[in-house]
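Hey, quick one: can you model this chain's 3D structure?
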Amino acid sequence: MSALDYLLKYVRTGTAEGDRSFLAQIFITPTQFSQLCAIEPGGMRVLVGNKGVGKSAVVEWIDKVAKAKNLPCLLIRPDNISSREMPSSPDIGSLKRFYYEVLLRTVGAQIGAQLKGLLKGDAARLHNEARQQGIVEDDFIQKSLELISAVALPVSKINGVQLAKDLAGVNSPDALIKAIGSQLLSSGNVFYLLIDDTDQLAAPDQPAHLNRIWALLLAVRRLTGECSAVRAIVSLRSSVWTRLTSESQGQRDQTDHIRGLVIPLLADDAQMQNIIRKRMEKAAWDAVKKQCDPYPIFFNGSTVTLPSSKETRSWDSFILKSARERPRDAIQLIKNMVDMAQQGNSSLIGSQEAALAMKVYSSERVDDVANEFSLDCKSIREIINTFADVDFESDFEVLRRHLLTVPSISSIQIRGMVLRPDVDEDAIAILRLLHETGFINPRVVDNTKPRGFRHILFHDDSNFVKLANWNSMQGARWEVHPAFRTYLIGVKQAQLARLPPAK
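Sure thing. Here's the predicted structure for all 503 residues.
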């Protein structure tokens, strides 16, 4: 096997499912991990993050460690949720009552499936009684709550220091030890309830379906309030959370019940570098090339010439800056480069392989945006394509003039609002969506940074792009993210190829 064959194992998908067999060897805890794991009695957290940032990996890691420590923990996804006929009324009260009972039935069923070894004595009796046919609703709820309490583990039986060390993995456990001791193990019993991929419960483009997601969140909140042993974590995509809190027909009045429980999952530069390097180190170890810098094992030279440019960067900087702050992006870019090297019978990845890989990778990122935000704007790909005629870096006035023309290319709607050409409000609505997708970001002066500037990402300031912030938008330079530039170059080349030859 070549060195690249060993690397391919660790970059094939970048998904929680694909990484499951070696998750324990490569998992890097996020900086928000202490806030997430150390849940107070009767508390919950809503883990919000972009697609590909690692939400599923985080909850799978907590589940894996908890079960290894015999700490009661259930990981539930929408396809595990016990199905019953939905109530005819779409109001939030009816849906909340419905999902509360569904949640309890699902927890009871999954205790029997995932935690069968804990069903002894009173716990076994309560499990059987709660699952009896014909039991009245009040009795069912009471017995279900008693069942959860019965299988929960008293904090006195949990070694908090060892649990924190195991959860921290390769990172320092110091902050986690303190947080777990003061919060998770402060009193009572502990039962982790993890609900992943919550947005798959409904079609987020339909306001009535948004209410289903709200109802599940509020049902989990009720469960943690009525059974303090339950420490719940619910994961949700950032774009869905944005819809939940902004959609005019959604339940925006519910936001204050949940907002304080939200933990945004972010991957900063240091986190991304650690994730990439850890996988390369494991691949190098497998290739019996230990205790050395892994980059020369897989890459040709210390720098790469950027695609369609003479500028050079280090390999780690190139991967990092192309990755949209999403670990999965970085992993899939490396996978594309491995594919190109192997197709060309090269033993190392060089600038040529990087350029070929970026053509595939950049197009895939546009596909990702189109899939992720098509419910918000069916024309998102067409909007992106218009930027083939715009410089990758521009001032606000140039960008504004372009955006004013975009609604004239076709009928465009953003979250139900029909856009009009030559209207600033609608131009800013397009820019706001593009900022949310990560396609374009403002760059502002910041003398505290090594290069004298910083980019304002959507999660840094989700309200930066709005009419009331006109002066700040005007003062920024606007940059198309590097992940999309190769795609736009391809769009421009295709446009030129279709032009009739000059006479």
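One thing worth noting: The first helix runs from residue 3 to 11.
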